[in-house]
């Protein structure tokens, strides 16, 4: 027990506690820090990006907005990490990880789509899937709704679960908080439209950089836990066809692991977007949404097991 409570196992304990808090409490319904951060980001964007700008000016203002929002968080979390120690440091780390994680929320959003689909309530499923994807849900058939939800589970598993764990392990409180802030800004500003094409570019590129390795570790996780041969082939052959450098490996490996066909033409308010097909040949269904949720959950347990094993190995080597 004393060895288990040594500093070498602190990262594992923080991850376990953060995931436990997420499992017990779920996403805060009110006063979520990310909601406040998002509101501040929206206000700053309206202030700096309210009128048409030249490309270079919009790029500079977007970079300034990114730095204004992220740098204070970085400095604050570095200070917290420096002044706290022992139990209080562990508690604050676990709380920060809890706010960044969304494993239970991901599952709840996915099941809110899968369960109506199983009951044949397509309109209810469309309404629920519109909460988690930007597609025109009213134009989706049953398979389209299931595919959209499955894609969301796989991609958000990378962003809201595995990347948060990765950046906590790499950078502690500053790492996990800065990544979540940048990922939020990319979700808000990372659109390729006249309003955000240049203003959101710095946030989008920084999110790509911070998500590069976690995305590939997520793809590896999906590959190990699913149809390994197909997942590996889809990852190698299909990932580069996707327009996102990080979503491509995650989606391709996840679709292959589940042996489900994702991608293809998708309706958006501005028109139908032709996307490459990913994965196998089986059509998406309510079962594939639930299988995607299970894949993310099992991947989380695998990460915990690996973190525990590495902690034990480091402790053993240090004790020699």
From TrEMBL:
GO terms for cellular component: plasma membrane. One of its GO terms (biological process) is cobalamin biosynthetic process. Pfam families: CobD_Cbib. Its main location: membrane. It is found in: Cell membrane. The keyword Lipid biosynthesis does not apply. InterPro entries: Cobalamin_biosynth_CobD/CbiB. Pathway: Cofactor biosynthesis; adenosylcobalamin biosynthesis. The keyword Amino-acid biosynthesis does not apply. One of its GO terms (molecular function) is ABC-type vitamin B12 transporter activity. Keywords: Cell membrane, Cobalamin biosynthesis, Membrane, Transmembrane, Transmembrane helix. Converts cobyric acid to cobinamide by the addition of aminopropanol on the F carboxylic group. Belongs to the CobD/CbiB family. This is Cobalamin biosynthesis protein CobD. The lineage of its organism: Bacteria, Pseudomonadati, Pseudomonadota, Gammaproteobacteria, Pseudomonadales.
